[in-house]
Specification:
globular; about 170 residues; about 0% strand; mainly alpha
């Protein structure tokens, strides 16, 4: 897959997956109506949304540039993506989406979004464990096994991991 195809496919997937999960569903739950939380919570929420969005965009770009593919299971990467923020945590996209939802809960003062964030995490954790990790293990073998041993799934490392040089 060339980079233009990867970028187009990733953009479509961005709208279809995180766009729905972190945009459309929270809107359905809240209508973006605020309960006017204290200012410090709203500011913290806005910061979490900005951080989550930035991490998500970075992670999607890594799939295009480094992996030459998309995050979508129907158009996977040619190479295992282990650069950028993936050097710190294996699942930055999921962490970013969860962070964005929690940020929305704080910004809007809507506790229902905390429940939605928890449900999101449970579904994603099951998906990662039951589908994504076995699929990546089958596709990338020892390379993924080494990466998985070195980089935690959900909690970022303090120092970036560097893959060993290719032989």
């Amino acid at each position: 897959m060339n980079r233009l195809e990867a970028a187009f496919g990733s953009a479509l997937f961005f709208v279809a997956a995180p766009g729905v999960v972190a945009g459309y569903v929270p809107w359905l739950l809240t209508g973006w109506r605020s309960s006017h939380p204290p200012a410090f919570l709203a500011v913290l929420g806005a910061a979490l949304i900005a951080i989550g969005a930035g991490v998500l965009l970075h992670a999607f770009a890594r799939f295009v540039v480094e992996g030459r593919g998309t995050p979508a299971p129907i158009a996977p990467t040619e190479r295992l993506v282990v650069g950028g923020l993936y050097r710190y945590v294996r699942n930055p996209m999921y962490v970013a989406v969860g962070t964005t939802i929690v940020g929305q809960a704080l910004l809007l003062g809507r506790p229902a979004l905390f429940g939605y964030a928890a449900a999101f995490w449970l579904v994603v954790a099951a998906f990662v464990r039951g589908y994504e990790e076995p699929t990546l293990s089958a596709r990338y073998g020892d390379e993924y096994a080494e990466y998985r041993r070195a980089v935690r799934a959900w909690w970022p490392r303090l120092r970036p991991w560097s893959p060993p040089p290719k032989r």
